[in-house]
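Collaborator request, handled under Task 6.
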Amino acid sequence: MTSALGKLSSQQRARLDRWLPGASVAKDHSWGLVETTVLELTLAGSRFIVKAGGVNDHHIERELHAYRHWLGPWTSRGRAPALVHGSAESKLIVTSYLPGELVLASVHVNDPATFGQAGELLARLHAQTVVVDDDYERRENQKSLAWLSGPHRIATAIVERLRAEIATWPTPPATLVPTHGDWQPRNWLVHNDVVSVIDFGRAAMRPALSDFGRLAVQDFRRDPTLEAAFLDGYGTDPREAHAWHRTRLREAIGTVAWAYRVGDEPFEAQGHRMIAEALSAS
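Structure tokens returned to the collaborator:
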């Protein structure tokens, strides 16, 4: 498994040697679709997770910011890994290892109790700080239009309809909170029936409802009892109808275009379904 270290740049390997001299690779957890390398290392009986970004990576810096400013409500309870070392310059992070299995690959993915815990964890993250951003909605509209102008496989007639609808959207001030950005069972671990959280490369200030997007089109869609349990854990439902519709369509557009760019055809198909369902509800 030492060959897995060859995925890191020479700068990253040198820094890792200073941080964890003599560590060995136990497992390569890299996803494969993106340029981020994720390795499990062992040293003197301790286990660590190393994340290394590629040349064009912009997730490591966001993840470091999240660790340093927003993850305290989780790390203080052992519900997220602790930051051990980090360098934005080297695009390199070392964290503690959390035991457990991914909820997505376990029987817990159908357990309402799991979703109740996930709702409680998310509420703790969102409750830390609030800012009002007068320009957020305009920026998000521009991002969606940029996706539509780039490569994708959305039908021309649908693109025209999406552009026309976005042009009618208001741009009210938005209330932003710290968000995970990819809140779903793929990024939850479960150990002894306790849920914890990983992967903070998309963490940013956004409306709270944005962290409901992945769940709404996947888990809530297949089992409404999971949604009820999640909302019970979270404590409220922030999905105001008009803002939620805009968020759903933006998420759908981004999903289709990003998945097409990286060659993830099942995720791209999900994005096309998301667009169709969001438009049918408008």
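The cover message to the collaborator said: "The chain has a mean pLDDT of 95. The first helix runs from residue 10 to 19. Please let us know whether this matches your experimental observations."
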